[in-house]
Amino acid sequence: MRRVPRRVLSEPLVHFAALGLLFFAVHAALTCERGEPLAVDGARVQATGNALARRLGRVATPAELAEALQVELDEERLYREALALGLDRDDPIVRRRLIQKLRFVHEDLAEQGEPDDAALLAVRDADPARYSLPARYALTQVLAARDRHLDPRAAAQALQQRLLAGADPVGLGDLCVHGQRFGERTAAAYAGILGESFAAALSDMTPGTWSIAPSTLGWHVVRVDAVRAPSLPELATLRPRLRADWEAARRDASSQAAIRELRARFPASLHELPAEVASALAERER
């Protein structure tokens, strides 16, 4: 028998053809055996018919129903064949999708039920900052506009001295498009109007006295007239949000319990890892 030249064996096209022959050989071996029949019963026909009626807006004809059933069966056949050929392996998209679906299953295993008021208040009081209404500030300001002064900060400091000496703020400073007096607003609201620097300065101001702060318009002399401290709303106001967070916590707890069980069933075997990494990972795996 003549030997195949080594140059031919090294050709990529030869490798591709060999892989193709192997694939079809495996396919032929798998398809020689008849697989498990696909069950089509009254329940399946009813479910398919209902879905088809919703899509069509009317009851499907027998021919239309048969066509829809055949599409389902052919898709199931393709799915089984893909699994038999291992096409689901080493596919990152399939892997992520399966992991996601299993996480959903774990979350759905969470106990159902309605939280009582005590459970909702416990959620609120465990993280009060999350649910508190932010502080609100009412203030008066006098502007030294950026486009009116070579040194708007120095101009604001001069205005501050006059105001600290008792001058009336009305008529002082440059015109501000937002007005001179502001009702109660949050720091976030002021940030949207006058910029982050102005909003950040508010929490350091002593109410009733004149301070200075920069803004997108220039420099302001500011008197905080009133402060409403952060506060926790009543349960009735927070109930929808607390209930959603309570349910999310239950789902997360169920998912974490399932993960702990899987860690026990499929323990990690650590080999040749850096000592610090191995120690940290072993601690997390407990």
Helix content: 55-70%
Question: Average pLDDT across residues?
Answer: 86
Give the distance, in angstroms, between the N- and C-terminal Cα atoms: 62 Å
CATH architectural designation of the largest domain: Roll
Total of helices: 12
Global geometry: elongated
Query: Rg from C-alpha positions?
Result: 35 Å
Major beta sheet, specifics? 4 strands, antiparallel
The CATH class label of the largest domain is Alpha Beta
| Integer count of domains | 3
**DSSP summary, beta strand count:** 4
What order do the helices and strands follow?
HHHHHHHEHEHHEEHH
Arrangement of strands in the largest sheet: 2-1-4-3
Structural class by helix and strand composition: alpha+beta
CATH topology of the largest domain: Chitinase A, domain 3
Uncertain residue segments: none
Topology summary:
Blueprint: H1 6-9, H2 12-31, H3 42-56, H4 62-84, H5 92-108, H6 117-126, H7 128-131, E1 136-145, H8 152-164, E2 181-186, H9 187-194, H10 196-202, E3 210-214, E4 218-228, H11 235-265, H12 275-285
Antiparallel strand pairs: 1-2, 1-4, 3-4
Helix pairs in contact: 5-11, 6-11, 9-10
Summarize the structure in words:
The chain is α+β, with helices and mostly antiparallel strands. The protein folds into three domains: 6-32 and 41-108, no CATH class; 117-124 and 233-285, no CATH class; 133-228, Chitinase A, domain 3 (Roll), CATH 3.10.50. It contains twelve helices and four strands. The protein has helices at residues 6-9, 12-31, 42-56, 62-84, 92-108, 117-126, 128-131, 152-164, 187-194, 196-202, 235-265, 275-285; strands spanning 136-145, 181-186, 210-214, 218-228. Strands 2-1-4-3 form a four-stranded antiparallel β-sheet. Strand 3 and strand 4 form a beta hairpin. Helix 5 (92-108) crosses helix 11. The chain is elongated and about 100 Å long. The mean pLDDT is 86.
